[in-house]
Design goal:
The chain is an alpha/beta fold. The chain has a single domain, classed as DHBP synthase (Alpha-Beta Complex). Helix content is about 30%, strand content about 20%. It has a 10-stranded mixed β-sheet with strand order 1-8-2-3-7-4-6-5-9-10, with helices on both faces. The N and C termini lie far apart (about 50 Å).
């Protein structure tokens, strides 16, 4: 078991250091609390799976601080720049072909990665401090409800993660819309706050 450190938003630099060293950290996002590890660190992502007791056949989405960082781990496709400019940060997840630099454990052996920029100031600040893509899933034990507060995350994950940042209640709300740009034509895999018509209109103008 790990001794979990509890941090305030003023201690983001400590959380970023833990992540860069291969740790697993919990922080608030624009939906629920997230459980994060460096996306390109196989050992760190493996520790995330252990902490959550997540089956290894379930891929982990990746968060980046700015759209330009997506190309470090994914092959960009037509329409990506337009969608990212219109809807990031925000509730849109974009699926792209993954690059070989992204460990297979993140994508459950698949050849695509799901990317998003969260619309939450603390999450964005942490991503900028870490200065690297983060594999992020909801902060809960697999099969249980996602945590909306640091206290809820602590109840499930204390002793299983390196740190929990208490950034106040997460706003919750509807999960993100998911668009798969690895397919031709692109497909909406999950509807959410951003309507399919909005996405398809942008994609039509990008080709």
């Amino acid at each position: 078991m790990t001794e979990t450190i509890f941090l305030s938003p003023q201690q983001l630099a400590s959380a970023a250091a833990l992540l860069r060293e291969g740790g697993v950290v919990v922080f608030p996002t624009d939906t629920v609390y997230g459980l994060a590890a460096l996306a390109q660190n196989t050992g760190a992502v493996a520790a995330l799976f252990r902490a959550k007791q997540r089956p290894h056949d379930r891929a982990i989405p990746v968060m980046v601080s700015v759209p330009e960082r997506a190309q470090e781990i994914a092959a960009l496709r037509p329409g990506f720049s337009e969608l990212a400019r219109a809807f990031w940060p925000g509730p849109l997840t974009i699926i792209l072909p993954k690059r070989d630099v992204l460990p297979a454990i993140v994508t459950a052996g698949g050849d695509t990665v799901a990317l998003r920029i969260p619309d939450h100031p603390l999450a964005l600040a942490l991503l900028r401090l870490v200065d690297a893509p983060l594999a992020v899933t909801s902060a809960n034990l697999s099969g249980r409800l996602p945590a909306r507060t640091a206290a809820e995350a602590r109840a499930q994950l204390d002793g299983r993660v390196d740190a929990i940042i208490d950034g106040g209640p997460a706003p919750g709300g509807q999960p993100s819309t998911i668009v798969d740009l690895s397919l031709s034509p692109p497909q909406i895999l999950r509807t959410g706050p951003i309507r399919e018509a909005q996405i398809m209109a942008l994609l039509r103008h990008s080709t």
